[in-house]
Amino acid sequence: SPEPVDDAPTGGLSKRRGRPGRPLVVMKDVNKHFGDLHVLREINLTIHEGEVVVVIGPSGSGKSTLCRTINRLETVESGTITIDGQPLPEEGKGLAKLRAEVGMVFQSFNLFAHKTILENVTLGPIKVRNTKKSQAESRAKELLERVGVAHQAAKYPAQLSGGQQQRVAIARSLAMEPKVMLFDEPTSALDPEMINEVLDVMIDLADGGMTMVVVTHEMGFARRAADRVVFMADGEIVEQAEPEEFFTNPQSNRAKDFLGKIL
Ligand code: ADP
Ligand code: MG
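Above: inputs. Below: predicted complex with magnesium ion.
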């Protein structure tokens, strides 16, 4: 098959790696409608290994739908999506494996309410990855340590703050050893004082070389962590650039208008 067209204006360069990684997520000519609404229009997007891509744009522009197509929570009508060279699986076992490889953290923390924090993190590896319980638990403890909630392992989600729950949700995704992590407005449901504790974990992940797609309005995070900002409006990728370039010198009127409202 032909080499994927590299659409990234930054050439897929990662700040941390200092060199472009191989294409990990490749979306080619992707289209999707919800009824009459053309929610994704000819999306061409390549995410390289180790790259951190921040997706911004007005509400309703298709950012969540874009993320959801990457782990096949939404199907597409035309175009192709590949992860590490493999087309997205249609169903069954392949889909469970895909969901493990493509971690996703949502605005709402959606932990399993009736499982402890430790169980929330061990469940996936035991069920999907066939990891031994003892091994899953020791790995889960490491991850909970990494996101700063190790001392909460025996508690239930409702006993934790929103910021702590979101950090557990991140640990739960990481336990599956994903190739790429998707974050869809992970801090927008949090009280302001808890936003940074979650962003700090994400910055730590980025610095560790994780490939990340992050939908967020946190421009400080974008400036600090992103290799590339992708601006969406009305289902289209309107422009993309390195954060400093995008924020100081947006090209399109739609991006100028959007930045004028949020900055
Ligand atoms: P964003 O995340 O940028 O706010 P979304 O991807 O959530 O945008 O939504 C894009 C558009 O698609 C919005 O107009 C939204 O109302 C619509 N939409 C999203 N999900 C569905 C759905 N399941 N059925 C119908 N319309 C939807
Ligand atoms: Mg959204």
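Confidence is low (pLDDT under 50) at residues 1-5.
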